Amino acid sequence: MSTWILLRGLVREQRHWGDFPAELARALPEARIVTPDLPGNGERHAMRSPASVRAMVECCRDDLRQRGLAPPWSLLALSLGGMVAVEWASRYPQEIERCVLINTSMRPYSRFHQRLRWQNYPAIARQVLRGGAERQERLILRLTSRHARDSLLPRWVDYQREYPVSRANALRQLWSAARFRAPELRPPVPVLILASAGDQLVDHQCSLNLAAAWQAECRLHPDAGHDLPLDDGPWVAATVAHWLAAEGQATKR
Asked: What is the number of structural domains in the chain?
């Protein structure tokens, strides 16, 4: 049985995956799906978020060891989680079978204004200054989704109130993401890159640049937002299953 580790992004937790873990499980019926929280988020919200992506990797490895889960693992990761996956696969390739990177961005392959669209700077700055769970979640939903219903908002607000991500932890996660620099060479594992043409938070060119630099397979969703598993989870699950099937056929040749 293969084990898939799902890694979320900035100030998000495992419950923000919504229906996607079940959708992936249906597409990969032989797989075990694990959705850990990064330190500072979700069930681990009381922990101090690491100030580097490398430290986040070590926290994830410790978490899996405590769960009794042995490698190798497959990683499916969104945004900041994609940076964690890249660092993990680069430093410990013997632990990772493959990576699926969704709407991630990283130096040196993308510029700052591509990694966080400049049109969003004023709204993000206002949120940092004013705070408030409902205002924060409404902004995140607007920036990350093109198709989610407004009925999702109260649920997200409840998540934040139950497991509040502190402003200090949010800033440390943002600082970690801003400082992260990807390796020049692709991690020595199979890599699939997924991107959304309708991403309003991160320019999808970031994913295309990364795929070109690493000569990695890339698939572009025509209209989903940044949170691709939320906007079209079945498409993500089916694309991953198809990729795995093609990978298996190539191995047999």
From this structure: 1
Q: What is the CATH number of the domain that holds 219?
A: 3.40.50.1820
- C-alpha 101/C-alpha 86 separation (Å) is 8
Q: Look up the domain containing 237 and give its range.
A: 3-252
Mean pLDDT of 127-154: 81
Q: What CA–CA distance (Å, rounded) separates 106 from 118?
A: 16
Cβ(196)–Cβ(218) under 8 Å? Answer: no
**Which residues does residue 244 pair with via DSSP β-bridges, in sequence order?**
none
For residue 219, with 0-12 CB atoms within 10 Å meaning exposed, 13-18 middle and 19 or more buried, which class applies? middle
Distances (CA, A) of 142 to 44, 47, 199: 25, 27, 11
pTM: 0.92
Give Cβ neighbours of residue 177 (< 8 Å, ≥ 6 apart).
10, 53, 80, 83
Which distant-in-sequence residues (6+ apart) come within 8 Å of 245 by Cβ? none
Closest CA to 181 of 112, 127, 245: 112
Q: How far apart are CA 14 and CA 143, in angstroms?
A: 19
Phi-psi region of 11 (alpha: psi -120 to 50; beta: other; left: phi over 0): left
What is the side-by-side strand order in the sheet with 217-221?
Answer: 32-34, 3-7, 73-78, 96-102, 191-196, 217-221
Determine the Cα angle at 135 with ends 144 and 138, to 5°: 30
| 23-49 tens-digit pLDDT | 999 999 999 999 999 999 999 999 999
